[in-house]
Request: fold
Amino acid sequence: MDMNKNENEHMNLPCNRPGQEETKVAQRRGLRFYLNIYFKIISQDIKSKMSYRSDFIISTLGMMLTNLAGFVGFWIMFQNFSNINGWSYHEMLFLYGFSLVAITPAQCLFDNNWALRINVRTGDFIKYYFRPINLFFYYQSEVFDVKGLGQLAMGIGILIYAWIKIGLAVTVMSVLKMILFLITASLIMIAMQNAAASLCFWTENSFYVLDLSLKFKDYAKYPMTIFNPVFRVIFSFIIPIAFIAYYPSLVILRPDQVPLLSYFSPVAGVVFFYISYRIWMKGASRYNGTGS
Reply:
């Protein structure tokens, strides 16, 4: 009887998910701890990538040439038009450069989202539960896409060139605004990528949705005024690519014509990122180690 009682008690013990206790510990970690861990993990990833220098150089050049093609595309377009719906050549370049800089953090810091569906399907994702740090942080920090730095350099160069040609004043306030809106615009792109990648926890393959979210960024370099009103609504509230460049850029480019949505950009960036993070973590919480 005692043996049966012990067995029954054993069978009724709560079954904790892998990493549940570690998650509680992770919640008590501070920013300094995570920064220290992050730079250690990233340094190892960069070292491994730099061991294949020819691959790094070719990939970086390929990234820069792809972005340069966009620059040339604008130049060819404006050989036939003086402006596009009231937007000059250099204003369009400003939007283009702004979008390149804004999407770079998603390219460099969250590139591991592209491998999420594979790790989930093969069962390798289970390893991320067995560390006393935030699961989302641990997974995303494993990969740093160095070639994205070439895109960043290209974007900054185009921004500076357009800024000078337009004749915008350089003040402390304008620079601070630029930094703030670039950061929050980046959060929008990261949020789109996080949400799209996390679908692999519910579906067999999220690649096509993730790839589609990446393709949508190409529309971010254009002013929303050139689109049909229906698409303006979609790109502002459903697929918020208008917040990647158009709305935040207006604060710098046209300070006298700034719509309310432009000032809402920082809030939108934080809100969309937080929602995507919760979706990602919700999917991870249902993962059972056998693939989804």
